[in-house]
Amino acid sequence: MIHTFKRGVHPNYMKAPEIPISVVAPPPQVIIPMAQHIGAPDKPIVKVGDYVKMGQKIGENPAPVSAPVHASVSGKVVAVEPRPHPLGDMIMSVVIENDYKDTPCEDLAPLTEEQLKDPEAILARIREAGVVGMGGAMFPTAFKIRGGIGKVDKLIINGAECEPYLNGDHLTMLNFPEQLLKGIELVRIASGLDKVYYGIEVNKKDAIELLNSLHPEKYGIEIVPEKVKYPQGAEKMQVKAVTGREVKPGGIPSGVGANVVSTRTCYAIYQACYEGKPVIERIVTVAGSAMNKTSNALTRVGTPLGYLAEQCGGFAVTPRKIVLGGPMMGICATSFEAPTIKGTSGVLFFTEKEDKTVEDPHCIRCGKCITVCPMNLEPVFMYMYYSKGDYEMMEKYHITDCFECGSCSFNCPARMPLTHAFKTAKLMFQAKAAKEKAAAEAAAAKEAKA
Amino acid sequence: MEKQERIVLDVAYQPQVRTNMDTRRIMLNVMLALLPTLIAAAYEFGFKPVLMVAVSMASAVFYEWGYRRLTKKEPSIFDFSACLTGMLVAITLPTSAPWWLPLIGNFFAIVIVKQLYGGLGKNFVNPALASRAFLIASYAGIMTNFAPARAMGVDALSMATPMSYLYSGQPMPAYYSYSNMFFGIMPGCFGEACKAALLCGGLYLIIRKIISWRIPVSFIGTVAVLTLIFGHEGYDRVSWMIYNLLSGGLFVAAFFMATDYATSPVTLPGQLLFGAGCGAITVLIRYFGSYPEGVTYAILIMNICVWAIDKGFRRHQFGVSKEDIAAQKAAAKAAKEAAK
User: Fold this and answer.
1) Rg value, chain B, Cα
2) Which of A324, A353, A364, A407 should one mutate to test binding to chain B, selecting the residue with the greatest count of B CBs within 10 A?
3) Which pTM was predicted?
4) ipTM for the whole predicted complex goes beyond 0.90
5) How many Å is the Cα radius of gyration of chain A?
6) A272-298 b/e with 16+ CB inside 10 Å = b?
7) Tens digit of pLDDT for each residue in B265-290?
8) Does domain A128-274 sit in CATH 3.10.20.880?
9) Closest partner CB to A249 (pick from B14, B79, B319)
10) Which of the residues A339, A375, B164, B244 has the least number of beta carbons within 10 Å of its own beta carbon?
11) Which domains are assigned to chain B?
């Protein structure tokens, strides 16, 4: 049986898994931002002039919701200063001048046989190796798994890769199937479960067949074929498709006993535990109409976007936009100098060809947004109340349930900026809630004094 | 690298890609879906429908352009919605209408019904049908005077339509056979005669997902079921039902008028109710009204109810099951009682 969720859209997928993985030569300088996860940014633990080895830890934070970062090349630290971050802003970064020797750091040894069966050892290693949600959310994986122990009975590995263009997960399945299954097994052991479900969209038929031929049941894995539909890879839709459960409003999957870990994250866990390798590289799909060709590039973390484009065949025409991740949920980078980070699954260089915005759009009330919203929302009314600034009605129409998958905007013939509006509205709600909380706390403090 | 620094990058919010089906393409597709009807009309009634559609479309675009220009608003003729309105106004005119009638009809449709309320998507009744209602009231003689189709071989300027036979309850003459009515060998408005052409266009729109099947199916279905149940003296039930489906403007109304985006519900169960309401009022008017054809007024009445219908049908909130809602209600009740 093919599993799925309700509604969703079918964008033009533009996938190219037939293009083999190419290795991008490490750049002369890597820029490693201290914020490559959700949570408090790391503090640099190296200073200018230090020599660092490839894989050496260069930034950390003791807070539980964080992950350390590692040097992706060996060489001399030439700067520790704020640099452009791919997701906007200037963020404290460590800049390393590459000595092209790739001298490896031996701090993380492969785990022993016993350690590979011990959940605590695996979790400690996942954290030490800086593994975060590599589907793009960059949530610290060790914290996520730990938070689910005892609560989660359905562990799901996300192999949907529903975003157009991206091929990294698919190529990982095809090129490293056994390593991937071992990585998934580690997540299962760390979660203390007997079984794990691996949801894969059926457009990756070759990968499903290959993985099934390797007896996934040996590792306690069941492969769940899923319908090809965006946003199948969203956490909530994965949980819905595989278990039929719906994550509560404002809640996380573990609230309904499910946890979702991405394919690339599992492979990173394999590398961390079996090979003692921290997260310092990943497959990045480089594509878009501005590029001469599409590449599935094995790229070091910290490679500047402009350098990456040159290494991947260069521009055919001047790009208008740089999109990080897939085109549906991806965010625009503002600088060619910004580096790739752990969560960068794709870098798309777009021109006018992909751009379909219009000035002064008018809603024609066609309701096509309602027919695609996977969260049962009514974007047409949410947008109406948003433009009026009517908070009460926005709340009544559950605007904060929106997880910004972009399906409504994608399907909108009038090109209304729906997702953009809902994102802004959610930020306003957050600010409002924070303000109210602060006011309540101030009142409580006053009362306590009196 | 220096070259890259000079490139100015755009920042846009997600999603970065969008479907190809934009407003303009939708309007063009609806016009394309009306093309078979127009060809059938030209075959049945000669060159006149072509002339009327041309005059009507040109005048609609002129009013749209003129209004936006005089009020100093963004020009909007290139979304092609005015073209479509002009086409729809023309096909609801009778064969005997003079060439200047669309000029008046389109002024009412474009300026009064559509633009005064803010333009595309803001009007609350269907512009083409509102203009038709206006013309029926103002030019009753012209609007109810129908010439026969050429293939009927009747040399007359005016002829009783099947609808008027149904309305008066007289038996249907033999030349109004099912097949003649299906292929449009009958007097009527330009667009209502050939059901086969309308069905082709309607199915095209449903397959292209431009309109949903819900409104036409529930509209036509309700008319069929109600006429089958209630029947009429002098007709057997089935033939009464088929005559009711084929004789008037039901098909053009169900596929092209009731499905107008701005004036139909956006919620999916709401669309079913809207279609059913249109069907029920149509039958009511045909049985008891003072005018034979009821689809125009049925749709206009339901147009006014759209806002209420949409408010009444909300989907369940994702992650909130029926049990959750029941538990919430019970908790609220308990809290209320505790407060007492």
Assistant:
1) 24
2) A364
3) 0.88
4) no
5) 22
6) bbeebbbbbbbbbbbbbbbbeebbbbe
7) 999 999 999 999 999 999 999 888 87
8) no
9) B319
10) B164
11) 23-144+152-311 (1.10.3430)
